[in-house]
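Is this the right way to post structure tokens for a design question? Let me know if I should format differently. Anyway, here goes:
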């Protein structure tokens, strides 16, 4: 039982990190109806910015304070992601208003390759380290219940709590604020939203800024765990099944889908891997997503679209 619970907890922690990346997909889709293939590149670009700024800030300011240097680096990286969001709206999205979804999808692919190249030009292509002070040593918990206790990674727990808090805040933002309702109106119908005075361009800048901030948080966490390297951009592909399961329009769905995928990967790796061979954790999520696409394409919490003709 203890081993099963350790595997389950590990899956839940990994699922929260997947959900954090999937959250970027959901945010932009909710506000623009665009499936943003640039989300992985945004995570990479934000992580590169954080890694380099955290190294440059002490050199430029002479400050020898770990927390303050990281705070300044994080603020600079967040500001840079807002500049990127403004540039995307100014030079790409505003010229594609009311275009077909496929056109916008191809635009996000172009943005993805541009951000990867820009990140390499600005920050280099070395493997960088992000150190924000999160503890990496595992701890044993529930010693009185299970002999020897359960092995839990502190960093995974903190990361999961950050991701959960971000999901709650964004859910409240979309449901309770005027800007959040405007974002949902724009997603439903661009032309109708414009006709009632909702500034489409400003709304898109806001949502891409929020998605950039989410990408920065995800990039810092993944960079702290794995280091910042260009393969980090592919982490978005691991979040695609999460989006399919949870639904493209549901913020809570992103976290539920992430938990399902994370737990499913860990349990299948441990209990099914010996029977089907290694590597099941790589393709398990995609097979599960394929099943959902066949029987419930809108996902667990997505809105079912009905076209009347």
């Amino acid at each position: 039982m203890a081993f099963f619970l350790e595997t389950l907890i590990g899956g839940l922690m990994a699922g929260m990190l997947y959900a954090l990346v999937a959250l970027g997909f959901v945010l932009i889709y909710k506000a623009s109806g665009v499936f943003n293939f640039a989300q992985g590149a945004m995570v990479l670009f934000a992580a590169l910015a954080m890694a380099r700024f955290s190294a440059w800030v002490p050199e430029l300011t002479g400050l020898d304070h770990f927390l303050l240097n990281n705070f300044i680096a994080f603020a600079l990286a967040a500001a840079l992601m807002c500049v990127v969001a403004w540039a995307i709206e100014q030079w790409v999205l505003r010229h594609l208003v009311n275009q077909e979804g496929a056109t916008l999808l191809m635009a996000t692919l172009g943005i993805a390759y541009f951000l990867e190249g820009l990140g390499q030009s600005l920050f280099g292509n070395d493997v960088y380290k992000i150190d924000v002070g999160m503890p990496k040593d595992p701890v044993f918990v529930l010693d009185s219940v299970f002999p020897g206790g359960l092995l839990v990674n502190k960093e995974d727990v903190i990361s999961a709590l950050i991701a959960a808090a971000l999901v709650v805040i964004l859910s409240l933002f979309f449901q309770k604020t005027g800007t959040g309702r405007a974002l949902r109106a724009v997603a439903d119908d661009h032309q109708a939203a414009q006709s009632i005075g909702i500034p489409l361009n400003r709304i898109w800048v806001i949502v891409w800024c929020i998605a950039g901030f989410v990408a920065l948080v995800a990039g810092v966490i993944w960079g702290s765990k794995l280091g910042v390297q260009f393969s980090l951009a592919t982490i978005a592909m691991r979040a695609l099944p999460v989006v399919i399961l949870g639904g493209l329009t549901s913020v809570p769905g992103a976290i539920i889908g992430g938990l399902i995928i994370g737990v499913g990967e860990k349990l299948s790796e441990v209990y099914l891997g010996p029977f089907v061979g290694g590597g099941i954790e790589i393709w398990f999520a995609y097979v599960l997503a394929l099943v959902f696409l066949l029987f419930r394409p809108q996902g667990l919490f997505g809105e079912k679209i009905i076209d009347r003709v």
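Format looks fine. Someone answered above. Worth noting: The CA atoms of residues 21 and 253 lie 13 Å apart. The chain has a mean pLDDT of 82.
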